[in-house]
From TrEMBL:
Pfam families: Abhydrolase_6. The keyword Lipid metabolism does not apply. InterPro entries: AB_hydrolase_1, AB_hydrolase_fold, AB_hydrolase_sf. It comes from Cupriavidus campinensis. The keyword Hydrolase applies. This is Alpha/beta hydrolase. Keywords: Hydrolase. Residues 36-257 form the AB hydrolase-1 domain. GO terms for molecular function: hydrolase activity.
Length: 275
């Protein structure tokens, strides 16, 4: 069942222009509770999370911020002639996310304080890059099926998704979650299948992450292997690994209960904003 959410738009500067970013607050009245910012996957949006952000925030008595990145959901779409570069996740982590935080008063010494970042897939990679680039600005990370390097299994599955998009009802199903579905799909798919992207690698920067990290991977993930989260632990040894059986690329859908319990406990145990 699809979940309808009420969202708003906020204007932020990005790439020399002003764009609209779709966002939604959860539990905004819990002013002194930890703030969890949800970073969606490569084809995600606010609505694609369904009710997982609400369930996690209720379980931990947290506040939440859910938003759709540029090109996704109801946010400003990517123009058809704009091709994302190999550094598109770095730009999201170092430029777009700080601009959103500025607009919404999130960060050390600001109204909403330091956030905890919870990212899925590409969103997990963006969370890792942000924490490595601004190590004093986040309380911690929960990353679900993150990518730190490009594996053959990822490329094969993304190529298969391209065929599914062209020849099945996937486009229509995704259009429920994106105002400009082709903007969302091709921005993600084209760059992941670009030959230059095969050299994309986050491992050299992971040792800059100082905050607590919970890294989660499903044993049946069709887009990545355990080498992804084991690599995070190798470079950031404070990382706690959670490997989930009977779980594919979306732990928040395949193992909702286990992930909610583990994430809520980890955030509560490690956040500095509890009062």
């Amino acid at each position: 069942m699809e979940t309808t959410v009420d969202t708003a738009l906020v204007k932020v500067p990005f790439d020399g222009r002003t764009i609209d970013i779709e966002y939604q607050w959860i539990g905004a009245r819990r002013r002194h509770r930890p703030l969890v910012v949800f970073l969606h996957e490569g084809l995600g949006s606010v609505s694609m999370w369904r009710d997982f952000p609400r369930k996690l925030c209720e379980a931990g008595d947290f506040r939440g911020l859910v938003f759709s990145r540029y090109g996704y959901g109801r946010s400003t779409p990517r123009p058809p002639d704009e091709q994302w570069g190999v550094d598109f996740m770095h730009r999201q982590a170092r430029e777009a996310l700080p601009a959103l935080f500025d607009a919404l008063e999130i960060g050390p010494g600001r109204r909403h304080g330091k956030p905890w970042l919870l990212g899925h897939s590409d969103g997990g990679s963006i969370a890792l890059i942000h924490a490595a680039s601004f190590p004093d600005d986040v309380d911690g990370l929960t990353v679900l099926a993150p990518h730190i390097m490009v594996e053959d299994i990822s490329v094969r599955s993304i190529a298969a998704t391209r065929e599914t998009y062209l020849h099945t009802d996937l486009r229509a199903r995704l259009a429920r979650h994106h105002a400009h579905v082709d903007s969302a799909f091709w921005g993600w798919n084209d760059i992941w299948l670009n030959a230059d992207f095969r050299h994309w690698d986050l491992r050299p920067m992971l040792d800059h992450i100082r905050c607590p990290v919970l890294a989660v991977q499903g044993e049946d993930d069709e887009y990545g292997t355990m080498a992804q989260i084991e690599g995070i632990h190798r470079y950031a040894p404070q990382t706690v690994l959670l490997k989930l059986a009977r779980c594919g690329h979306s732990p928040h859908r395949d193992q909702t209960g286990a992930l909610t319990a583990a994430s809520a406990a980890f955030i509560t145990a490690h956040t500095s904003t509890l009062k």
